[in-house]
Structure formats: C-alpha cells, structure tokens
Amino acid sequence: MLSPRWRKVARDLSSHRFRTALVAVSIAIGIFAVGVVMGGREILVREFDTDYANAATPGATYYTGPIDDAVVRRAVAHPDIAEAEGRHEVTLRYRWRGSAAPATLSIVAMRDYEHVTVQKLVPQDVTHWPLRRGEIALEGSALQVADYRIGDMLEVETADGARVSLTVAGFVHDINAVPAQFTGTETGFVAFETLADLDEPEFFNRLVITFEDAEMTREEASKLAADIRADVLETRGVTVYGTSVPEPGSHFLGDIFKAVSLLLLALGVLSLGLSGFLVVNTVSALMAQQVRQVGIMKAVGGRAGQIARMYLATVAAYGVLAVIIGLPTAAYAGRQFTVFAAGILNFRVSSYTPPAWVIALEVAVGLVVPLLAAIVPVRMGARMSVVRALNATGMSATSFGHGLGDRLLGLMRGLPRPVALSIRNTFLRKGRLFLTLATLTLASAVVMSVVSVQASINRTITNLESWWNYDAQLILGQPTDALALEREVTGMSGVAATETWSGHPAVYVRADGTENESLQIIGLPHDTTFVRPRLIAGRWLEAGDTDAVVINTDVNNDEPSIALGQRFTLDVMGEERTWRVVGVVSGQLSGAVIYADRDSLGDIVGDPGVNRVLVRTHEHAPGAQQAAMEAAEEALDAAGYQVVSTRTQSGLSGTIAEQLGILVTFLVIMAVLLAAVGVIGLTGTMTLNVLESTREIGVMRAIGAQHRSIYQIFMSEGLVVGVMSWGLGALASYPMSWLLTDALAGATGIPLAYEYSWPGVGVTLAVMVFVSAMASVLPAFRASQVSVRDAIAYE
Amino acid sequence: MNDTPNNTPLLRLRDVVKVYDTGDVPFTALRDIDLDVYTGEFVGIIGKSGSGKTTLINMITGIDHPTGGEVVIDGTPVHRLNENQLARWRGRTIGVVFQFFQLLPTLTVMENVILPMDFCSMYLPKERVERAMDLLEQVELADQAHKLPAALSGGQQQRAAIARALANDPPILAADEPTGNLDSKTADAVFGLFERLVEQHKTIIMVTHDNDLASRVRRALHVADGVIVQEHVHRPRHGA
Questions:
Q1: B125 touches chain A (CB under 8 A)
Q2: To probe the interface with B, which of A286, A294, A300 has the most B CB atoms within 10 Å?
Q3: Is the pLDDT of residue B3 over 50?
Q4: Residue B55: closest CA among chain A residues belongs to which residue?
Q5: What residue ranges define each of the domains in chain B, with the CATH number in brackets?
Q6: What's the gap in Å between the CA of A398 and the closest CA on chain B?
Q7: CA nearest B92 in A: which residue?
C-alpha cells in the first residue's frame, strides 16, 4: 500500500490538474525547443554533409568551345584529375501550362545518366531513369517555386526561335544546383539526343572535373585548374571562356548554412537556459504555495529530508509528464522543420532520426534540469521553520517594504488604488519577478531585433533600388547593334526610356599567373542615368576615359590588389588589357562588377555590340515592370533577337529578399519560441501569484472589492510585467539587433545597411501587451472568483 | 506550588525568553518563563490576544525556538535540537492540534492520521491502518475515515486533527485554540474528548481565551505581556 506521503504527492499532482499541466507544459516547452533546435540542427548538418559528400562536387568547371569524348578521356587520364565528364549546357526560354510570360530554363545534357561520376544526380520522383529523348527531369528545387507535375509539357524556345515541347519525366536532386527560388531559373536535365530537337549542337561545352587531392586550398586548386586548362584543353585547341573553381569542400550556400546553424545553436542554448529559468520559477512558486502544508507535516513529525524527497518526487513526476509530451512533439516539429530547411537549402534528407545525445539531452532537460532547478527552492521550503511555515499567510511571508525600491514605489502618489496595488504587487516577489522579466525581456528583445534585422534588409534593398534607376533588364544571347536594339523597344507602351549596355565575364590575371574568373565587366555610357552610383572613393566614369574603370566593393574584397589608383590586367573575351581604377562604388549584391565606358570596352573586345537592354517604365509597380518587360521581350523575339534571360527590378529585389529571408525566417522561429516560453512563464507566475495572494484577495473581498476590481488588479499586474519587459527589451534590442545584423552580413557576405526599427518597437509593445493580457486572463479570472470563505480557509 | 501526581516534571521551562525582531524595535513576547508540568495534567494557558500564550505553546512544541532559557521535555533539551531532530522528536512526543485544524487537503481523514506514523516510522504499515481506525473510532469519526477533509464539518475536522495528534501515542498533546473556530456545542464535545484523554494519562496543554473552558481545566496559567501572571489549580472532576 502506498504510504500517505506518497499518496499526497500523487493527489497533489492529480487534484491540481491545471497546475500540473502548466508545470509539465512549461518543462515540455523547454524539451520541445531544445529537441527541435538541437535535433534539427544535428539532422541538418549530418544530412547536408552526407548529401554534399556523396555528390562529387566539381573541383573545377571549364566553360569551353566544342569538346568531344577524346578530350574528356584525356582529362580522365590526367594524374591530378580523379574524374572528368563532359556536358552540354544551354540557357533557353520556356513556357509552362500556356503561361503568357516565358521564363528561363538552364538545360543540362549528359551522355550517360547511369554512370555520372561528377556532380552526381539523385533521381527523386521519376517515371523512369535514364531519360528518353524528348523528356526533361527538373531539379527538385523547381517545386519550391511552382507546382510542376510529372507529364507537364514545357514549351522551350530554341536559339532560332522555334518552339519544342519537352515532357516532364520527373524530378532529380542536385545539391550543387543553385536553387530555383534564389535565381528564378529552373534547371532541367535532358538526354543527349534531345539536343538535336532543341537545335543545339551535339557536343560538350562544359568540362567538370574532380581533383585527386581533395584537401587543396582555393589558391592551390585555382593554380592546378589553370595548369589542367593549359595541359588538357588549350593544347588540344579547345577555347576556354572561363573556369570556375569553388572553395574546395564548401557548398555555395555554405555561409548561409553556417549562419543558420549558428543561429540554431544560439537558440538551443538560449532555450535550454530559459527552460531552466522557467522551471526554477515554477518550482519556487510551487514550494511557496505549499509552505503551510510543509509546516503542518513538520509539526506532525515530518523531517526536512522526507519532505524534500516528496517535493523532488513531485518535480520528477512533472518531468516525466513533460518528457511524454515533449519528446514526440519535438520529434514531429523537428521533422517538419528539417523538411522546411531542406527545401529551402535544397538538400536531401535520408533520415530524420536525431542523434542519441539529442534525445538524451531532451530527457535530461525534462528530468534533470527540473530536479536541479528544484533543489534550492525545495531545500529552502523543506528547511523552513515550522512557525514561519505555519504563519505564512501570503501577506506576512514576503519582505516587501524594506528595500529602497519598495519605498520608492510606496511614494508613488495619485494612482488609482487598484493600479498602485498592482504595481506594488508586481514587486512583492522579486526573485520570481526577476526570472519572469528575464525571460520576457529576452523574448521582446529578440522580437524587436528580428524586426530591426528585417528593416535593415529592407533598407539594403531600398538602397539597391535607388542605385538601379531602371525597371527591367533583358539579356541577349549575342551582341548586337545598340541603336537598332534601342529602336525596337523605345516608344513602346509603358516604356519611358531605354539604354543598352554590354556585359562580359572577365578574368583577372594575378601577378603570379593564377586567375580569378568570377568577375564581370559592364560597359555602359559614362553619362548614364540608369544607375545612381554611390561612390565610396574616387570618381565615376567621365568622357574620354579609355582605360578607366570603376569597381564595386566586392571586387576589392575578392582581390585586394585591385584598389583605387591601381592598374590591373583583365582578360575580356580573350583580349588582355590593363585598366586603371578611378573609383570605388558600393556592392549591389550582384557579385564583383567592374564598370567601364561602353565604347571603350567595345573597342577592346573588338565588338561594339551590346547584349543588354535596360528599360525604364512610367509606372514602377511590379505589375507594370513585368508587363513592360514581357512586351519588350515579345518585340525583340518578333524582331529575331534571342533573349536569354530577363528580370525586373522588383523580381530581383524579391529574390534577394528571399535569400536573406531564410535567415529572418529562422530568427522569427527563434523569437516565437522565446515568446512562447515567456508567455508560459508569465502565466505560471501570475497563477502562482494569485494562489499566494488568496488571503489578500479574501481581505479585499471582505472590505468590499468586487469581482471586477480583483480581476483588474491581477490583469494590471501581468500588464506591468509585460510593459516592463518591453521597456528593458527595447534597451537591449539596439545592441542586439546591431550585432545580429552585423553577424548576418558577415555570415552571408552581403553588406547590410543597419536600421533600427522604431515601428518594430511600437509593434512589440502591442505584442507584449497582448501576450501579457493573454497570460494573465485566466489567473486573473481565477482570482476574481475567490470567495471570502475560500480565502480564509485557504491552506 | 503544584498538586502533582509525581515529583519529576514531564515538562520544564526555565528562564525562557522570546524576542522577535520586528525591524525597528525588538518585541519581547516571553519574559523569563519558569514552568513545570507533570504527567497527566490538563493545563490551560489563558490570555488576551498578543499576551504571548501561542508563543509559549510554540516553545513547548518546538515549533519555535526560544531566544534564551531552557525547555526540557521528558528529559530532552528541546531548545538544543535542530529542525530535523525537533521534527522526529515532536512526531513521537507531542501531538499538536491547531485552531484551523490544518489537515492536509489532498489526503483522506484516515491518511492524515497515518501520516505522523509514516514520517516517524512508528508501527508496522498494516498496524497503522488499524491504529488510525481505532483513533478515529475514539473521536467518533470512523465512518468518515475515507473522506477528504473538505467534506467534514469544522468540529469533525478538529476531531480528526486530534486523532492525528494521537497517532504516535505521544505523552503530550499541545493544542492552540482548538475550539476557537468551533461553535459552543462542538467546542464542548472536543473539550470532553480532551478530558477523556487526560483520564488516559495524557498530558494536555491547551491555549484558550475562553474563560468557561479555562475554568474546566485542572490548572490554568494566565499570561499577560509575556509573563505568567496568575495560576489557578482547580479540583479535578475526574480522578487524575
């Protein structure tokens, strides 16, 4: 038979269902947060690494003229090359389900899909594999931007303007493909024979290789890639337009991934700490509520150790309940979170099982943390002298009125009595107030910081939009005459002005002979009004500048030797020329760009033609930009120009916002979790304040307080805590948001313009008032229902 | 001075002083109390509110510690015991009855009675149930044994509290205003129960401000301003 003291433990748990649920949910929130965040992070890192490691990411990609199997075989035989493959890649326009506006599709053709050795593909959902002629398999990230279905027809426009239908045979995964949601360009794979249908020549124009030595630095890899280029390609007369050598072992979204991972780690640690706070708070309050019963038990012979064991058992029971609630919900949410993150970051998850240590940590959070948190309050409660415990009436059990702060509160005059009472009651239990405030302050500071980070992103995008003084851009496959091109678009409905530019990949030849091929040179009229350059140093282009260029900060970041006043050698379309840096402008999130006078650039590359049309519209709304762009593309198509890609400024802004938005999404998740912990904490605090104040309530009721008055007092108490947390959070949010913005800029490599969001501070006040009201409404209602008789009989 | 059943006092207080630190000026609740109580006595402590009578009984039960002086009960120097030693000693030596009954609300009446035996490891587990039932029969609550305290009237709760106080068969029963929260008829019944316990050689010390009840105890100590100012010894109505 269970002894009475253990029955008391059981009955306390079962008879105070609301309290039991509240405490168990409080602890479960901690388990949930730790499980989702730590588990999610571990699964993400593990699956991402596995997926990436299995993908045989190219060590180098060569963009070439025609190459055949013999060149590929020669590459495979090279001692420094582990694997090599040839591919044909082409960017074409296409329509889907009869859409009016064409979109851009990057098509990759491989000879043998069953034996891919470099940049491996994983068929995810395909009717059959390998592909047949006339079929296309879309890279899986396409599903993030549109609802493609197997069997859909894509109407692809060939370089000659003919339209060819390709059937969607399914979806494949390529971790090295840039996700469609980031570029607005889907990637599709076709059989080599399909190239003929697309009027494309059946040869390779890409060589992808993996190196034997996978441990090289980027500099070493670049140098080796240059040697291989000379040995394998150029000696065979193959024209190489460019070479791409990524950071070895680093995914192109690696920085964002690291930032997400870091955020998750910070969130996990924070959740762990806050759930500990919550548990300390709850257990302290539980002991405060039970103090009279502790007194009785001691009066009838209960020793401190026996009583402490009873309450520790109670806490352990809360922990077990919390684990029962927390583990499965964390597992479910962790899976959803992983699916969400894997979709955004485009990687494949083969197992959603978190590592054993995460489950152990969750159990520890549920069982060990509450017990550790309970030790001090349980010990204090169990060791309280009988006389003190029995005399604890709520009114005399606190030490309010002695400290300086209490006296200052006592000096507050002119407030309505219930409001003054609420404010003073708030400070009655200072330890509990501190813990609740700490939780809610952190939550409100994070909410405000997240809003400020979003404001900083918005400001960065606004700055970019003010730099680009045009609405749409169309890029052609081949250079063409500027005047003829402008004539096609000028005067069209909705178009206010047009301008033409030329843009080419550029190769920087370093002093040691290695090359950087990630630069781009743009030729534009020196007196252009289509950009409003923000100069950081030097000057903009002027008439008569023949060898002068303006670089953006990304160029200088990539190649520190290219700086203001310096001369450097650039290879553009096979022509090497020395340029002089006359100005530096801020980066525009489009990579490293060098601006030169259009005519001078034309002279150097030996082709005065242009390949970009910029359109400024009368209306700048996204719809107007899109309409003007579509009309321009139609006109150019009709005139026989091959448009290879288009973009509106609103579309570009949206894409950039989406990239940065990934991080904001994770920050929002963080803020919501913290806010949830805060709300639960405040609800617990308010509930226990009400329980402890039962005698005061009885006294107030006895001297005439109505239900409404009592309700208002406790609602006000909750609101005072909420508003205080908001105020403290606002103070903390300025440095926090600055650090967060700076960290994001560092992690993503995107320079963000910091902006503190004052509207966010206002919105957070509204949120905190709402949250505090929600947390207080039930405890306040319970307080208002206490009868005088109940209050006097309260034990 | 005392009409005592034997020469060794069961309970002896010497120079007991209790001073409360109330912040600005210390408050002396008891001043140099000397008191001997012998086995089988029924002692009433009488006084006005704030006179120090509850403080005095708290010194005896070990619920509170004296600032100075000695409290020796059945040979145990209570003033030297720490909280844990006090709890075990109290559980076995003194049954405490409170004005507001102080039954644990989540335990049944029977479980409340068993609780002290459980804490002090007294009696075998199966004996505890039998003993609790015997005690409840003595206080005429056997039929209420499995009810929760909230289902009982005030008088029934106080009788249950007395049964709990007797759980470990302590030689002393200390009651602080045990009838203060009861109507006169119920108070009379509870007092009758105490009288029967005295007949069974229990020593009872009871705080009360009820002059009628005070006149019915064998020995009445009048306390004022922390001092025993007067003592009356009444002729026992039943042989002690």
A1: yes
A2: A300
A3: no
A4: A387
A5: 41-57+82-233 (3.40.50.300)
A6: 13
A7: A301
DSSP A523-537: EE-TT-SSB---EEE
Is any Cβ of chain A less than 8 angstroms from the Cβ of B153?
Answer: no
Instruction: Reduce the DSSP state of residue A135 to 3 states and report it.
Output: strand
Task: For residue range A28-42, list pLDDT tens digits in order.
Answer: 877 887 888 788 888
Q: What is the CA radius of gyration of chain A?
A: 34
Strands of the sheet containing B42-47, edge to edge, are B94-97, B172-176, B203-208, B42-47, B219-224, B227-233
Judged by DSSP in three states, B209 sits in: coil
Q: Which residues of chain A does B115 touch, with a Cβ-Cβ cutoff of 8 Å?
A: 4-5, 8, 297, 300, 302
Please tell me the distance from the alpha carbon of residue A557 to that of residue A268, in angstroms, as a whole number.
33
Q: How far apart are CA A330 and CA A328, in angstroms?
A: 5
**For residue A381, what are the contacts with CB-CB under 8 A and spacing of at least 6?**
A287, A288, A290, A291, A294, A307, A311
Tell whether B23 is within 8 A of chain A (Cβ).
yes
Ranges of each domain in chain A: 1-15+36-53+254-327+347-392, 58-244, 402-467+652-795, 472-619
Chain B residues in contact with A389 by the CB 8 A cut-off are: none
Which among A8, A305, A387 has the least Cβ separation from residue B104?
A8
**Secondary structure class of A91 (helix, strand, coil):** strand
Mutate to test the interface with A, among B78, B104, B146 (most CBs of A within 10 A): B104
According to the model, what pLDDT value does residue A333 have?
Answer: 85
Residue B116 and residue A301: Cβ atoms within 8 Å? yes
Q: Can you read off the two tokens belonging to residue A337?
A: 């979170």
Do residue A402 and residue B23 have CB atoms under 8 angstroms apart? yes
**3-class DSSP assignment, residue B45:** strand
* B120/A301 touch (CB, cutoff 8 Å), yes or no: yes
Q: Over 90: is that where the pLDDT of B37 sits?
A: yes
Does A292 sit within 8 Å of B90, measured CB to CB? no
Disruptive mutation site among B30, B113, B114, B118 for chain A (greatest number of A CBs within 10 Å): B118
Whole-number Cα distances in Å, A382 to A307, A372, A389, B83: 6, 15, 9, 10
| Contact in structure between A651 and A470 (CB atoms under 8 Å) | no
Cα(A499)–Cα(A486) distance, integer angstroms: 7
**Nearest-angstrom CA–CA distance, A188 and A193:** 15
Distance from CA of B59 to the nearest CA of A (A): 10
- The model's confidence at residue A665, banded by pLDDT at 50, 70 and 90, is confident
As a whole number, mean pLDDT of residues A555-577 equals 86
Whether residue A393 is predicted with pLDDT greater than 50 in this model: the reply is: no
pLDDT tens digits for A278-324? Answer: 677 777 777 777 888 888 888 888 888 899 999 999 989 999 999 99
CA separation for the pair A281, A257 (Å, rounded):
35
pLDDT in tens, A55-111: 899 999 998 999 999 999 999 999 999 999 999 999 888 988 767 678 889 999 999
Chain B residues closer than 8 Å to A385 by CB: 63-65, 83
pLDDT, position B98:
83
Model confidence at B2: pLDDT above 50: no
Measured distance CA(A18)–CA(A20) in Å, rounded: 5
By a Cβ cutoff of 8 Å, what residues of chain A touch chain B? Answer: 1, 3-5, 7-8, 11-12, 15, 292-293, 295-306, 383, 385-387, 390, 402, 793, 795
Between CA B82 and CA B65 the distance in angstroms is: 10
Q: What torsion do the CA atoms of B161, B162, B168, B170 make, to the nearest 10 degrees?
A: 140
Contact indicator for A334, A7 with CB cutoff of 8 Å: no
Handedness of CA A48, A53, A54, A56 (dihedral sign): positive
| A296 with B116: Cβ contact below 8 A | no
